[in-house]
Amino acid sequence: MKSFDRPLYLRLYNKILENIENKKYNINYKLPSENTFASEFNVNRHTVRQALQLLKDEGFIYTLKGKGNYISNIKIPYSISDKSSYTQRILDLGYEPTTKVLSVDIIEPNLEVSKKLGLNKNLNVIEIKLLRFANDLPITVSYSYFDAYVFRDMIKHLDMKPFSLYKVLNKCYPNMKITKMSTVFEALNPTSELSSLLNLRSNTPILSASTISKDQDGNLVEFGTSYSRADAVKIKVDLI
C-alpha cells in the first residue's frame, strides 16, 4: 500500500513516530498537545487522537491524566546491590510510583521455586504477583515467593496502601536485614499475558531478573523473578 493510500491517522502515527525516533521532542519528553498536532499537520483532533492512541497501544508513549502525553523513555536502574525499595528508586528519579497487587496465593511451588528457597516440594509458598508503574507507564511484572509457614505474618498486611513489599517485610520483621545474594538476568520474548500487562507490542524483548535474597543469618528469605520492559530499565552494578 502506498503511503497516500493509508488512513490519515496511520500517516500521522508514522510521522510522529519518526519525530520521536529523531528526538525532535526532547524537552521534558512531553509531546505537543492535540491542538498543536492538529494545527501542525492540518488534521482534525479525532485523527490526532487515533494516532496517539496507536502510539500508546504500542508502548511508544504514555499519558499522565491532566498533564498530557509523554515519550516512554523512563530508565529505572536495576541495582544488583541496592537495598532501597523499588518505590524509593522511582521517587529518586522524580517519577510517581504505584504498585498494583495482581494476586496473592498460597500455592504448592514448582521444582525451581522449591529449590531456590531450599524447601521440600510438599511445603507451600506465598506467591505475590505485582504490576509496578512509573507515572502511568507499566514497567515491571514481578513474582515473589516466600516460605508460607515462616513468613505467614505477611498475609495479614498485604492490604497495605499504598502497597510496598519492602514496607510489608519491614513491618512484619523489623529486625530482619535482607540482602540480595544473586541475580540472573535474561532477555526474553514476553508471553501474551506479559505483553498485555506491560502494554508492549508482541515480540518486543523484556528483561528478566531472578533474585535470591537472604537475611543477616544466612537464611533464605525470598526468591523472585521480575519481567521488565527492556526500554525502561537499565542495569546498575556497584563494584565497591
Q: Any overview of this molecule?
A:
- Helices cover about 25% and strands about 30% of the residues.
- The protein has 7 helices and 10 strands.
- A hairpin with a 5-residue loop joins strand 8 (about 205-215) and strand 9 (about 220-230).
- Helix 1 crosses helix 3 (about 45-55) and helix 2 (about 35-40) packs across helix 3 (about 45-55).
- The longest helix has 14 residues, at about 10-20.
- The N and C termini lie far apart (about 55 Å).
Throw out a few tags for this protein:
240 residues, alpha+beta, Arc Repressor Mutant, subunit A, Chorismate lyase, elongated
Question: Topology, pairings included?
Answer:
Blueprint: H1 8-21, H2 34-41, H3 45-57, E1 61-64, E2 68-71, E3 76-79, H4 86-92, E4 97-107, H5 111-117, E5 125-134, E6 137-147, H6 165-172, E7 179-188, H7 192-197, E8 206-214, E9 220-229, E10 233-236
Helix pairs in contact: 1-3, 2-3
Number of domains: 2
Largest sheet: 6 strands, antiparallel
Assign the structural class, choosing from mainly alpha, mainly beta, alpha/beta, alpha+beta, or little secondary structure: alpha+beta
Distance between the termini: 56 Å
- The SSE string, one letter per element, is HHHEEEHEHEEHEHEEE
CATH topology of the largest domain: Chorismate lyase
Write out the strand line-up for the largest beta sheet, numbering strands in chain order.
4-5-6-9-8-7
Q: What is the residue-mean pLDDT, rounded to a whole number? A: 85
Instruction: Examine the secondary-structure arrangement and name the CATH architecture of the largest domain.
Output: 3-Layer(aba) Sandwich
Shape: elongated
Give unreliable regions as ranges.
none
Report the β-strand fraction as a percent range.
Answer: 25-35%
- CATH homologous superfamily of the largest domain, by name? Chorismate lyase-like
The CATH class of the largest domain is identified as Alpha Beta
- The counted number of beta strands is 10
* Rg on CA atoms, Å: 21 Å
Tell me the number of helical segments per DSSP (H or I, 4 or more residues long).
Answer: 7
